[in-house]
Design a protein that fits this description.
With 921 residues, this protein is mostly helical. The chain is 66% helix and 0% strand. The two termini are 56 Å apart.
Length: 921
């Protein structure tokens, strides 16, 4: 596969560029040199470039019996990576030469190259005199995936003690259950790699004989082996539950912790067995069961946990209360309020935390009382919970807590007052800017930023003179939320080179948030500053400002000496959305090789940005990234940068160009990127992605992404995983899950999306607000109203407002009343430009109910534009066509609705063409 020539950054920003083909020529020449180490290095490097010109020179080195063996080994490995069939016969020839030390590398390379002609030579190599050759041959046969190797591998297992683990691993890769017992034995092998691989393969063989040995592997001294054992048991699922529950009684800390974690990951199949031990287990096991049930989140556990919350054992009660908070079921509110009076401080704290998660205002009065708790932790937790609940009855009590003698309470009170958004808190918070405790000052500055009150501008500017740079950073950020009057003093800070660099960074960030165009030139100038951290913040601020004249300076920053500045410049160019950035982004993407993880992260962001720019000039470069496996692997460290290729698959899906279909289909055969390739196909709307995505649901590392891809296609098999993904530690995962859940139209997502309105990430909150508008479920109204009151971020407020207007307008239209008001509401939502497709569908439905069918058709047609037209919009457009006497078009739209979501079949069947008129909703 060819790699794109780097066109050169010199034309854009005066820098030298590197043509990788020239480097390939240099390394080929270096193979002929006198220095053995340089020849070895050249061979290894040529394996990374993916350039087929290197194949025959490497073959020549491989076949040269006089060449140093280490150089020939490097040549063999490089040929395996290059993937060119011309290397197969030379490698087979080497494999057959008795006594040649290169045979092991040749065997391994044949496994990478694949092909049926390698099968028999590799089977023969299983009987080689050298153990390393036998081991490599076994590994290679596993890679080949040809079931004809099974008998030979089984013979190795029965006869060859030294190579038995590798043969077992290969047999497991062939999905042959005769490997189970040897793999179980391999779990006790002296080599961590073998134990690690054995655990991994056992999980995929789906055989219950592996359960107890895998649990025993929880005691392994290698964390990777313990993790693989847990993953394997999760894949085995229900058959492993009983043994894992028994392991809860283990005194070994490692076994106990792994059993708890694995049962939580198995999920639903473990619920009933766990519920049964809530009544009969000892206190330790009951406490574990409660904790696990909270993690699983199954509503069957609510009533049993409510009962358990009165248990005589304090740890059991504590875990039961915490689990009730995780379950989010408001049946628990009363029992949690009662627990606020428990004698044990830890129980009271768990009750407060659970009430915070349930977000029920019935708890407000009791939480206000808890601000007087004798335990400082209880008071601090109560303050935090009151901030989360967002009820302004708490303002005055929290102002009193600002005077609490404990700094932690003071800190949480300041934070809560910022969340409540009440102007009465401004002056007390200004006073708190001078508190002796640094954490209190930090929270006061952040709270004033959330409030955005102009009274705070002068005190925050004064705070920039403090020697405490961390506090100054927060003060500068807060000024960015206080409106345009803060711009002038922030520009002055930005220009003041005597000011602490961290404070200047904060000023740059704040100016970006303010959106004041007067700061553009100062930020552009900052890109030349010698301090890389200052340049870092300036790049992001310029992207946030959204000014087109920042494009060229940001493009130049793609070549900054600091990789984080380059990374931020790419982010900013994506935010700007200016297609003029496509060419410089492609040029940088194609320049040089990835040598470390920092460079890999930068390339990853380049790929993401190209996906965002919606410019089809990026399609071929991204296809090149997807195909070029060798350029995203560091032979020196063994580090893989496959995540860049995975992201390329997603970016190709985002661009929506049909040229990406075949490369993505081919990538389904590549283990490193197959799941992301399927997601890319899903983004393109290609149903061929469904089967590989369903298979990927069984893969612990890929299941959430697979569920997102299925959701993109309207397939609900991964719905439970999508709901869990909203709680994932990875912000990007939560964002993707939230976005897809909105488009799926499934009411089960309403409560989890409401909970996500309080996510720590502003992106997640914004997406959750938007998705609730797409679901148009009235249960979200109250929480969206609360979000608008407490949220300082304009984008989030706009998303929540548009969603509220869509929900209300949709509700009025369904009821057939207040239709004029509904039309006004949805037109306001359209003006906010948050979610045009949802808003136009809502408008179409309102117009339909008003009898304005021609206008309704126009609105619905706008709602189905683009790649994410919903089944609902197509269905309602069909109804409008019917009323307008366009039956053929109506039937076409009904068919599309059914294709997108088969739950529409029943509705469509009810509308038989012969009976359509007069039976329309």
């Amino acid at each position: 596969m060819s790699v794109f020539i780097a066109i050169g950054f010199a034309a854009l920003c005066g820098c030298d560029s590197h043509n990788h083909k020239d480097e390939v020529a240099v390394y080929i020449k270096q193979l002929e040199g006198e220095d053995k180490l340089l020849r070895k290095e050249a061979a290894a490097e040529l394996g990374l470039y993916g350039d087929v010109r290197a194949v025959m020179p490497l073959v020549d080195v491989l076949q040269d019996q006089a060449e140093d063996c280490t150089v020939r080994e490097s040549a063999a490995i490089a040929l395996g990576k290059l993937g060119d069939d011309r290397a197969v016969e030379p490698l087979i020839a080497v494999l057959k030469v008795t006594g040649d030390s290169v045979r092991s590398s040749a065997a391994f390379a044949l496994g990478q190259l694949g092909g049926p002609q390698s099968l028999e030579p590799l089977i023969a190599a299983l009987k080689d005199d050298q153990r390393t050759v036998r081991n490599s041959a076994a590994i290679a046969l596993g890679h080949l995936g040809d079931a004809r190797a099974s008998e030979a591998l089984l013979a190795v297992i029965e006869e060859d003690d030294l190579s038995r683990p590798f043969a077992a691993l290969a047999l497991g890769q062939l999905n042959d259950k005769r490997a189970v017992e040897p793999l179980i034995a391999a779990l006790r092998d002296g080599t961590p790699f073998v134990r690690d691989a054995a655990a991994s393969v056992l999980g995929k063989l789906d055989d219950t004989r592996a359960v107890e040995p895998l649990i025993a592997a929880f005691r392994d001294n290698e964390i990777s082996v313990r993790e693989r054992a847990a993953n394997a048991l999760e894949l085995l699922g229900e058959p492993a539950v009983a043994a894992l529950i028994s392991a809860l009684g283990e005194t070994d800390v490692l076994v106990h912790a792994a059993a708890v974690s694995t049962l939580g990951r198995i999920g639903e199949p473990a619920v009933v067995p766990l519920l049964s031990i809530l009544k009969r287990g000892n206190s330790s096991v009951r406490a574990d069961a409660a904790r696990i049930l909270g993690r699983i989140g199954d509503p069957q556990a609510v009533e049993p946990l409510i009962v358990l919350s009165n248990d005589s054992d304090g740890v059991v009660r504590n875990n039961a209360l915490a689990a009730l908070g995780q379950l989010g079921d408001k049946r628990a509110v009363d029992i949690l309020i009662a627990a606020l009076k428990d004698e044990q401080g830890s129980i009271r704290n768990s009750a407060v935390a659970a009430l915070e998660q349930l977000n029920d205002n019935r708890a407000v009065d009791e939480l206000i009382v808890a601000l007087q708790d004798k335990n400082w932790g209880g008071r601090a937790n109560a303050a935090r919970a009151l901030g989360t609940l967002g009820d302004r009855r708490a303002v005055e009590p929290l102002l009193v807590s600002l005077q609490d003698g404990d700094a932690k309470v003071h800190q949480q009170a300041a934070k809560a007052l910022g969340q409540l958004g009440d102007g009465r808190a401004v002056e007390p918070l200004i006073a708190a800017l001078e508190n002796q405790d640094w954490a209190v000052r930090f929270e006061a500055a952040k709270a004033l930023g959330r409030l955005g009150d102009k009274r705070a501008i002068e005190p925050l500017i004064a705070a920039l003179k403090y020697t405490d740079w961390g506090f100054c950073w927060h003060a500068a950020r807060a000024l960015g939320q206080c409106g345009k009057p803060a711009a002038k003093p922030l520009i002055a800070v930005l220009k003041d080179e005597s000011q602490d660099k961290i404070v200047r960074r904060g000023a740059a960030y704040a100016l970006g948030r303010l959106g004041d165009k007067r700061s553009v030139q100062s930020l552009v100038d900052a890109l030349e500053d010698e301090n890389s951290q200052f340049r870092l913040e300036a790049t992001f601020a310029l992207g946030y400002l959204g000014v087109r004249r920042a494009m060229k300076p940001l493009a130049a920053a793609l070549n900054d000496e600091n990789w984080q500045v380059r990374w931020n410049a790419a982010v900013a160019l994506g935010v700007l959305g200016d297609k003029r950035a496509t060419t410089p982004l492609i040029n940088v993407l194609n320049s040089g090789q990835i040598r470390n993880s920092e460079e890999g992260n930068f390339r990853n962001m380049l790929v993401s940005t190209l996906g965002q720019l919606d410019d089809n000039r990026a399609v071929q470069p991204l296809i090149a990234v997807l195909r070029n496996k060798n350029s995203y692997y560091n032979s020196d460290t063994g580090e893989s940068y496959s995540y860049v290729r995975k992201n390329a698959a997603i970016a190709l899906g985002q661009l929506g160009d049909e040229r990406a279909v075949e490369p993505l289909l081919n990538a389904l055969k590549d283990d490193e990127v197959r799941v992301m390739a399927a997601v890319g196909l899903a983004l393109l709307g290609d149903k061929r992605a469904i089967e590989p995505l369903l298979n990927a649901l069984k893969d612990d590392e890929a299941k959430y992404i697979a569920a997102i891809g299925l959701g993109q296609l309207g397939d609900k098999h991964g719905m439970g995983l999508l709901l869990n993904a909203l709680k994932d530690d990875d912000e990007a995962m939560r964002c993707m899950a939230g976005s897809v859940l909105g488009r799926m139209g499934d009411g089960r997502a309403v409560a989890p999306l409401i909970a996500a309105l309080r996510d720590e990430s502003r992106r997640v909150r914004r997406i959750a607000a938007k998705s609730l508008g797409q679901l148009r479920d009235e249960r979200a109204v109250l929480d969206l109203e609360k979000l608008i009151k407490r949220e300082a971020d304009e984008q989030i407020c706009n998303s929540a407002t548009a969603s509220l207007q869509n929900i209300r307008a949709w509700s009025f239209a369904n009821a057939g009343n207040r239709l004029d008001e509904a039309e006004s509401l949805v037109k306001n939502a359209i003006a906010l430009r948050v979610d045009a497709q949802t808003s136009y569908e809502t408008l179409g439905w309102v117009l339909y109910k008003q009898g304005k069918f021609t206008d309704a058709i126009s609105a619905f047609e706008k709602a189905i534009q683009g790649r994410f037209g919903s089944a609902s919009a197509h269905y309602h457009l069909g109804l409008a066509y019917l009323k307008d006497n366009q039956q053929a078009k109506a039937q076409e739209k009904f068919d599309t609705a059914f294709e997108l979501d088969d739950t529409y079949l029943e509705r469509v069947e009810q509308l038989k063409v012969s009976e359509l008129r007069g039976k329309v909703e």
